[in-house]
Q: What sequence folds into this?
């Protein structure tokens, strides 16, 4: 086949892929906007997907995310600290490997929420609005309470 005949096909296929991927991203952003009550949450928040599906994949990650949320004033330390402390007590820690060295906990403290399916969301990424992060923090706190 002549290259000049394949070029339009490649261009058409590329355009179709770009349109399809744009509509998928718009659906995710629209879904999150619906959860947030239609507020402007920023383009980066589309990676959060559906808020109802966001969960911490481990006790350590939940404890770390709660600490991140308290440090950054998304959660009240008065309400969240006791839950985090109880989760830390559940982590297997020893003199050789204290609970604070748990990799999932460290990721959480740095704002990286890692789900059980391997998906992750960086809560500190630029473009996320405080309202969206606060909702995620509250969801993780509720999940953490059920882990106790």
A:
């Amino acid at each position: 086949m002549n290259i000049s005949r394949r070029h339009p096909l490649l261009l058409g296929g590329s355009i179709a892929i770009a349109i399809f991927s744009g509509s998928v991203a718009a659906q995710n952003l629209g879904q999150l906007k619906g959860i947030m009550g239609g507020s402007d949450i920023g383009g980066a928040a589309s990676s959060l997907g559906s808020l109802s599906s966001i969960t911490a994949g481990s006790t350590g990650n939940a404890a770390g995310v709660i600490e991140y949320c308290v440090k950054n004033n998304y959660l009240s330390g008065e309400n969240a600290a006791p839950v985090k402390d109880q989760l830390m007590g559940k982590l297997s820690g020893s003199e050789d490997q204290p609970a604070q060295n748990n990799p999932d906990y460290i990721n959480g403290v740095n704002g990286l929420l890692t789900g059980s399916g391997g998906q992750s969301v960086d809560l500190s990424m630029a473009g996320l609005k405080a309202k969206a992060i606060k909702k995620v923090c509250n969801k993780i706190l509720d999940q953490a309470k059920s882990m106790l």
